[in-house]
Amino acid sequence: MPLPRPAPAPDATKRDLALEVHRRLCAEYGCPVLYFHALSPLDELVSSLLSHRTKNADSARAFASLRAAFEDWAAVRDAPVAEVERAIAGVTWPEAKAPALQRTLRALTERQGLLDLSHLAGMSVPEATAWLASLPGVGPKTAAAVLSFSTLRGRALPVDSHHHRVAARLGLIPKSLAVGPSHAVLEALLPEDWDAQGFYDHHQMLMRHGQRCCFFRGPACGRCVLRDLCPEGQSRLGTTPA
Ligand code: SF4
């Protein structure tokens, strides 16, 4: 299976910026961050597929409802799609997510002969990312979530919409770069000697900053701890970068 093409080598300025952003946000919000759950890779895959554009509490409820309604993931795969849709009714677009989830589970079964992802533990993160991303419905964010958030605890960097917005405003990525390809670019900025916790913390810090300060509409640049580093903040505040 071809590995994804590596991102171009980042310039040192962007690496330094990413590290300074990480340092300041860790001081602001606190690092290390506790992992929010410890699901198996397959459970995490299902959970991640449900969570797209859905609040954490709603996708957690839908995941619990799915587990309660069906004996195992094979039963979810083989159930009438309307039953799956009913079980995940609390997420956004259940009518699309139910058949998509079944498609992913069927493809995994065809490929592995069973519903199991434990073989990913024996792969490097780039290999495991490529393997996961070749499943239907699995993109870079879902693959990174499976590798980072599950019990695999891999050195992978999920990029959600908050993380992506903050990174673009800071100039870590071009504003025109979509979320999918931004994964490789942002991951390449992180030090090679960081462990999985460092990657996880970085994701959590950028995401939290997007949720608590760098809002989609009306970012609170005046109280932002990154404002002297941020071209967007400087422009909004009408000041000159330090
Ligand atoms: S200065 Fe403004 S735009 Fe820049 S990161 Fe902070 S809140 Fe976001």
TrEMBL record:
Keywords: DNA damage, DNA repair, Glycosidase, Hydrolase. Residues 50-212 form the HhH-GPD domain. Transmembrane segments: none annotated. SUPFAM superfamilies: DNA-glycosylase. Pfam families: HHH, HhH-GPD. Belongs to the Nth/MutY family. This is Fe-S cluster assembly protein HesB. The lineage of its organism: Bacteria, Pseudomonadati, Pseudomonadota, Alphaproteobacteria, Acetobacterales.
